[in-house]
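Continuing the series of single-chain predictions for the mutant panel. This is the parent chain; the variants come on the following pages.
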Amino acid sequence: MASPGETLANSLQIALCHFFFNIMGILLWYPIPFMRVPIRLARGLGNHTAKYRWFAALYLILCFLVMPVTVFGLSLAGWQVLVGVGVPIVVLIIFVIIVNVMQSRCPRYLPKLLRTWEFLPKPLHSMAPWDTAVTSMFGFCGTHCCCCCKRCKCCNKEDEEKVSRGSKKSLEMYDNPAMTRDEDYKGGR
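Parent structure:
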C-alpha cells in the first residue's frame, strides 16, 4: 500500500467503503433486467450528447455545480425554505416521469391533452430550439466544434460529405455488441 503505517487503518476503511458501495450498487441494479435503470439513463444521456454536443457540458454544469450550490444555499436559509422549494420541484419531476412512462406504455389512460407534450411551448418539449440558440451563440457547426467556423473556410461542403459518408462506418466500429444485442432482442418481440 502507498499509505504510511499510522494512516493505514483509515485508508483501508475508505477503500473497503468504496469497494462495498460499488458491490451493493451492482447487486441492487444489475441482476434483475427491469431494474437496469442506470444503463437506460446512461444510454439516453449518450444519445442526447451524440446529437447535441453542447448537452454534455450543460449536464455537467447543472448537475455538479448549479444543483449542489442551489441546494446548499436553500439549506442555509433553513429547512422550511428547502422543503418549500424542493417538494414542489420533486413533485413536478415525479409527475413528468409518470406522464412520460404512461405516454409510451398506455396513452389511452391519459387525458387527450397529456398524450403528447405538444401543448407546451417548443423549447419545453424539444431540444431543437435550444440547439439552434447554443450553436449560433457559440459558433458551433455540424462537423467542427470551433468558434472560427463562421469566419474561415473549414466547413465547406466537401468536409460535410466526407463526414456523412464515413459516419455509418465509424459508428459501427465503436458499437457495443452487448447493447445492440439487447436492442435486437427488444425489437424482435
